[in-house]
Amino acid sequence: MTDTPRTVAVIGAGTMGSGIAAVMAGAGQRTILYDLTEDRVQRGIDFVHGFVDKSVRLGKRTADQAEAVKSSLVGVTDLGELASADVVVEAVFEDLQVKKDLFAQLDDIVSDRTLLHTNTSTLSVTAIAAGSRLPERVVGTHYCNPAPLMKLVELADGRHTASWAHDATLDFLRTIGKTSVVTKDRPGFILNRFLIPWENSCIRALESGLGTVESIDAAVTGALGHPMGPFRLLDIVGMDVHWQVAMRLYEQLRDPRFAPPPMVERMIAAGDLGRKTGRGFYTYDDTALFGA
């Protein structure tokens, strides 16, 4: 691969998919955002546009640069529109069969040399790649949340990932401004193996009355050096997403540290998912997930 712009398709216009689309378009890649319905696609495009508009207000992009990012992004609901993609990033619901079926469909649409990336962080890259007749071109690329702001991407090869696909993925991530950390194809990779039990521990500390939302966040940022407290971070990620990731890891590892505390399900039932709903551990007037 070279530093010249490529066509990148992102499948899934949810929080992660939209964030990844913002990364690609922001790095000058021709970006196709796919989802099943026009409404979902439009929400994803609106998210990217809102992100770049906010970056202009913050002085991090010029108006012309923002327009260039917007013009690099198109939305589609026909999977066949992905035929020209050099790289496909799958960011759909964490369901193994859904991902396998999707990769099987892509085999009949994209070139045999198109890189297939899965953004999973809880499922086996090897198992997902088994859905493709060319598992050697499937690579796990887990973008840290929020994707447009976090530089790190975990890279995990499947059992049959070819060296050319691994190397091409490292090169691609470099050209879009990301830092890669290579890890093994294991549940949670590196980050969620550490992060999920820690976040659950912070939630349990809150449940037990050890501290308040504000005091725990202040302790973590003030003494541990984290740029963001656990509850601010959880509000960005979303409690529904945290529950999903935690449960997938608990089901595979059977380690009680990964089981989401009862407070998580109560907040989800109440609709207090975090910033995207205007209320989580904190309340928000601005529901944009993050600034640029």
Features:
eight-stranded mixed β-sheet; 292 residues; 11 helices; N-(1-d-carboxylethyl)-l-norvaline Dehydrogenase, domain 2; Rossmann fold; alpha/beta
Overall spatial form: globular
Strands, total number = 8
The CATH architecture classification of the largest domain is: 3-Layer(aba) Sandwich
Structural class: alpha/beta
Largest sheet: 8 strands, mixed
Q: What's the total helix number?
A: 11
In the predicted model, the low-confidence regions spanning at least 5 consecutive residues are: none
What is the helix/strand order?
Answer: EHEHHEEHEHEEHEHHHHH
Radius of gyration of CA atoms, rounded to a whole number: 19 Å
The first-level CATH class name of the largest domain: Alpha Beta
- Note the beta-strand portion: 5-15%
Helix % is 40-55%
Provide the spatial order of strands within the biggest beta sheet.
3-2-1-4-5-6-7-8
User: Mean pLDDT, as a whole number?
Assistant: 95
CATH level 4 superfamily of the largest domain: NAD(P)-binding Rossmann-like Domain
**Tally of separate domains:** 2
Task: Give a verbal description of the structure.
Helices cover 45% and strands 13% of the residues. The protein is built from 11 helices and 8 strands. Strand 6 and strand 7 form a beta hairpin. Helix 1 packs across helix 2 and helix 10 packs antiparallel against helix 11.
